[in-house]
Every structure is written in C-alpha cells, then in structure tokens.
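Sample pair:
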Amino acid sequence: MSNTYVKFNLGSTITTEQQEFFNQNGFIHFKNFIKKETVDDIIQASRQVEQEWIANQRVKVNGIPVKYGKDLNGEAIVQRFAFINQHHSLFSELPRDPRFETLLNLIGPGARLGTEEKDGMVLNHYVNGPESKFTQMGWHTDGLRDIFHGQKLNPMLNVGIHLSTLKPENGGLRVLPGTHKQGIYQMLFRKKYFLDNKADANEIAIIPEAGDLTIHDGRLWHRVAQSSVVGEESRRRVIYLPIIAGRYEPKHENSPTAFYQRFAGLVK
C-alpha cells in the first residue's frame, strides 16, 4: 500500500469495505468521531485531573505508573494518564457512546471495551520541549503484555481518539500495515521493543485531525514518532482505549505493577 490510505466515516455498522481494509492492514481511520467542542471539553477535563494528581503526588493508578514531565514553562505536567476514565465523569461517559458498540464488531462476539482492564482509558500528552520526558515511543506491539503475563494472545484492538490536528512533522502514530498477521517469532523479534525508534520504509504515518478516531490491532507493529518541531506547535494529545476479548481481568487500587512497566524509563 502507498504512504496514503483511505479514511472512512463511521456509521451504524461496519461496512464490508471497512472490515476488509482493517483485516488486510490491521488499522483503520474514521473521520470526525467527536466534535471540536467535545475535544475542548476533554482537554479541559484532563487539566483538572492533572491538577489533582500533581497536588496529591499520585504515583500509580491501579498499579500503572503515572508518567510526569515538564511543560514548556518548566512546570510539572502529567504526560501519561492511565485509567483516566475513573477520575472524571466526562471520561467515564465517553465509552458509553453507542458507536463503540459498532466498533466491537471488528473483533466479533465476546468483545468489550477494557475500561477497567489493562491500563483502562489512557490519555497521552506529548510536547517537544527542553525538559519533556515523553516525546516519542519506540517500535512495539500491544500484544506483548499478554506474553509477559504468560497468557495466550487474545484479540485486542487499541482505539485512539485524537485530540490534536497533526501534520507529518508533528510526529505521532506510525504503523507497519499487515504485521498483525505475523507469527509469534516476528512479533517478538522483528524490532527491538521500545529501543528502536528508526523510521521504516514500509511504515504508514497516521495523520489525524482533532476529533478523528483510529483503531489498530494489538499485534500490529507501531511506534510514536518524535515531532520535528518544538514548542507549542509540537503539543499533541490522544486517548487510547482497548477493545478486548477473553477472560475479564479488572484492575484495582492494589493491583501490582507489571514487570515490564518497571522499565517505563526506556519510553521517552
């Protein structure tokens, strides 16, 4: 496939064309999932949660480390919120949108939104400044955690709700189409997990507008490219929420921190 791809509109069902595109490539992009006003409300709500977490010096949420960094003015910010849906009503209401039920059909029977599992609803806040701790993320698959936990690889999709309008120079999500069909060896060893940030000749740049929604298969190799611009223009926010199947495994405040999450410092 070329470095451009088809963007779709989400209706009341997943069309045959949409299902075939997703099956072949392992990702899909829907335009205008939420309105600009809703995007603004979400960003404002995230600032409220951020202020509370900083004031309370919150270190973990349900065993998942909170990732802090510095904003362009040197002030502390939260750069990765896990389970943010449990900390503000707007985020808890968002997954109740009936269109998420439509998205579950990409996996099929038994699929559910993982609002209480894995990392819950995650909000990532990237900004490329002199003191930022979160500007990129190396190549990885989301299915690795199941292997770390000694589990079989259950179906998992990652739903992204994009809160920023990006240009290619803003960095952001890069995917390797079709790699969701790879065998377990390629899933483990195709790239050096999180350490390899190099562009791949076959990668596709996901270039969303604020309010767009993307989905990628948990087995798909992907990375988050660093912005080539700095300062306010580099700021981008995105929400991720898993669609999962298999055994129900909710997290709680006493959940342990997984072994691989102790290496969060590798993820810049």
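DSSP finds six helices and 14 strands in the chain.
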